[in-house]
Amino acid sequence: MKLNVPFGSIWLDADHEGLTTISFSELKQHQTNQITEHAAKELTEYFAGQRTCFTVPLSIQGGTKFQRNVWKALYQIPYGETRSYLDIAQAVDSPKAVRAIGQANSKNPIPIIVPCHRVIGKNGKLTGYSGSSEQAGLDIKRFLLHVENVSI
Prior knowledge:
By secondary structure, the protein is of the alpha+beta class. It folds into two domains: about 1-50, no CATH class; about 65-150, Winged helix-like DNA-binding domain superfamily/Winged helix DNA-binding domain (Arc Repressor Mutant, subunit A, Orthogonal Bundle), CATH 1.10.10. The chain is about 35% helix and about 15% strand. It contains five helices and five strands. The strands form two sheets. The protein has a three-stranded antiparallel sheet, with helices on one face. It has a two-stranded parallel ribbon with strand order 4-5. The protein is globular, with a radius of gyration of 15 Å. Its main location: cytoplasm. Keywords: Cytoplasm, DNA damage, DNA repair, Methyltransferase, Transferase.
């Protein structure tokens, strides 16, 4: 399902259990169903500043055990707060794996809802984010943090 959002379009996909994908580029195959419609409604409310948490069921597939642990840690970051890559590395008991945290973030299949945009450099600076280019990704990350009233 394609959803127009303030910075362009995103594509949603789901299986019978939950949302499987939020993509910043068009998916070759995607379906509209009750779960993608639920996600679209919640994302629209999020962008309007009317939602601070999501209730749409998730069905995260793939990823290594390490990546899935990182995604679980990301999901725990509260709305309007940020964590450093080091904070996430420590949360998954891999304090030396800061670069691996960045790689796991880049493989996050459900950005925004699994809020990898809330992870910033330990110096408080924005670093990498999914998008069509590095700058576009940082612009999206900045926008999402702005929606959550986070000053960067």
